[in-house]
Amino acid sequence: MSEENKNREAEQHRVNHVIEEIDQRQEKLYTKLAGLKESVINLRQNFWEDVSVNLEESDDVIETHASIKQQAELLSERELFHGKIDEELKTLKKLKNNPYFGRIDFREDGESTSEPIYIGIASLMDHNDDDFLVFDWRAPISSLYYDYSSGKAQYQTMDGTITGEMTLKRQFMIRNGAIKGMFDTGVTIGDELLQQALGNNASTTMKSIVSTIQKEQNKIIRDEQHRFLVVQGVAGSGKTSAALQRIAYLMYRYRETLNKDNVVLFSPNPLFSSYVANVLPELGEANVRQTTFYEYLVDKIGSKLTVESPFQHMEDKLTEVRDTHYHTKKACIDYKSSLNFKQHLDEYMSSLTKDGLQFKNISFRKEVLVTKEQIRDYFYSLDPTVAIPNKLELVAKWLLREIKKQQQNEKNKDWVMEQMELLDKEEYLQAHYHMQAQDQDELYADETEEDFLRGKVVQEAFASLKQKVKQFQFVHILETYKKLFTDWPLKNAPEYWDDIREWTSKDLSQGYLAWEEATAFLYFKVCILGDTTDRSVRHLFIDEAQDYSPFQFAYIKEQFPYTRMTLLGDINQAIYTHEIKGSPLVPNNEDGSYERIVLTKSYRSTKQIVDFTTYFAPEGEMIEPFNREGQKPELVIHQGNIVEPLLAKIKALQENGHETIALICKTQQECDELLELLSDSLLVTQINEKTRSYQKGILLLPVYLAKGIEFDAVVIPNVSEAMYAGEAERTLFYTACTRAMHELVMLTDGKRCPFILEVPEDKYKVITG
Ligand SMILES: Nc1ncnc2c1ncn2[C@@H]1O[C@H](COP(=O)(O)OP(=O)(O)OP(=O)(O)O)[C@@H](O)[C@H]1O
User: Fold this and answer.
1) Predicted ipTM > 0.95
2) Residue whose CA is closest, atom 3 of ligand 1?
3) Short-list 270, 307, 291, CA closest to 515
4) Nearest atom within ligand 1 for CA of residue 603
5) Extents of the domains making up the chain
6) Which residue from 43, 320, 476, 585 has the fewest beta carbons nearer than 10 Å?
7) Is Acyltransferase a UniProt keyword of this protein (predicted)?
8) pLDDT digits (tens, 9 = 90+) for 417-454
9) What CA–CA distance (Å, rounded) separates 285 from 262?
10) What torsion do the CA atoms of 759, 760, 763, 767 make, to the nearest 10 degrees?
11) Ligand 1 contacts CB of residue 407 (under 6 A)
């Protein structure tokens, strides 16, 4: 028998042994679970029999309360234990199918022999709980597997650095307990395994990559030193994958102190949120809080104002006619996205300490109790050096006192009697008991039942007004913000300032916040009303960070002052035009709190697709394809009727085995037009900004909704010069092309767009129809 076969046999033998151990453990847990289930059912059934209920004397009530509490605690403890066993059984089931994917043999300095370390998705001890049969991929020692080839190696533990020598690094492909493949490898984890993983069909949910994490990605996953971890990675370089494995790593590393609510992921759209929702549960971790930045803003701004969605913003921008307004609008977006605007806002807010803050009348039943002028006078009579939110606190206290006075006056009015008649029996009964209880108390000797009920009606009627005062709703935030554009003399005004002022005040009068306005407005609101920083979030992940403006990122930094942040993005895919130097992906690292990792290798697409897209990548950065062969991208030049050539192409792609084929358009409008043409002859699923999940098949979507997602094949129905022309559309075109894993097809009925012209003709196939 060859050495290789002997090794394989020995390894299969070990796999069998581990599976036997798993079987034993499963059996033990099932027995425990059955006993526990019975005891939980018993506890639930006999709950009220086992507690002693006696409510006669106050001591008895306390005793009864303690008895119920004790019984409830017992029940929840058992239920928790039941849940834990359930979780462990789920993990064992996964391990039984595929107990581990890697092995390293490591000899620690000072030791004479090497220890084999087997690495899998979770740890497993032997039946005596003495030795690790499998190490979790996140254990400190497992980092050796991702970081080194044979030779000198080291890893970090809580107690310091462990150095030694790695004598073997082996990868396994185990399915249903049988070794299907086994390779001894160097530092990059198996081309063979990666080839297999990447050659598969696209899935409608993202996969975990633990068995093939690359060295650079491992750096992202395990970084614990920096407050800001910035990852600039080309399309398909595994940024999102690394981010999700990093979350799983942090949840494991800090499992005692970090829970799923302490981690937030800002994703680019709702579709993406469900696309990645599988990864963490697959790794045995709960999903963390996921939201889009838009949803976050809407939630904080409140439902009284309408916030333009980033997709509507994109759609309008891309379908807009390029008249004079176009330049004004662009100037407006650029200005409102900039730190310059933030500075102007800060200056404006500082002027409000002296004058200018707008207030609302305090009214009750259509009668003004305190006028806005009175509130303003009171506010500006306070010490100007006190911060605005603190002064508002004082105003609120004053207002509550004023309201209380009014409350007394209201008591004897007719409306109170009318409301009293609407009270139900219970409330009258309550008043009756109340009077009985007060009988002994001289203080209340004169109070009648009617007085009591009048007081109650008035108190309830004033409750919501008082609540609003406590929330500082007497400040007219929108009106004050608007004055920045109507009244405030701005120094160093940006280009088109008069138009910007006019546009903005018109929008604001209609309660409408454009996308570029929303963050600025929220920033203004929180600065005026006071601290709303979120201290519960310990880790914030921002995917597609290139699409955040400098203003938005500055706001996020201020709102999460105690949070560690991982920012992932690709400047080549920046679909909202912001100046690159202000991008969060190009941080200024003055205080050393930033670590920036650049990923240049692209794993998603075939070598031919990466080669093609590299020529027009906006930043022209070095992009290195992973060596996976495929067809050259195709450009189909047709005679004007797109339906026939498009259907023929889709049919051919299906025949090639592609299950998820995306027709990616520039805009929603283009999607709608195409759907009209195709709906009679093809079953297409249209994806819009509200779509939360999708099935395999033929999908139709605008490029800005395809962000972060991948498909077996991508068809770009119109790559004409008229469709993708200006520089601003380069990133859109690049993003669309790089969604393809295996095949890319483009169609045009005329001249190809300038970006394709930048690619040498031998890099793609032209088909003229
Ligand atoms: N180490 C790896 N092992 C296996 N597959 C990987 C690895 N890294 C990346 N991939 C695969 O490459 C593809 C792209 O990964 P991912 O979506 O994380 O990249 P991205 O950088 O976020 O892409 P984009 O910016 O274009 O949206 C996915 O199919 C992912 O599973």
Assistant:
1) yes
2) 212
3) 307
4) 12
5) 3-206, 208-305+532-602, 362-471, 607-768
6) 320
7) no
8) 777 777 777 777 777 777 766 665 555 556 677 777 88
9) 13
10) 90
11) no
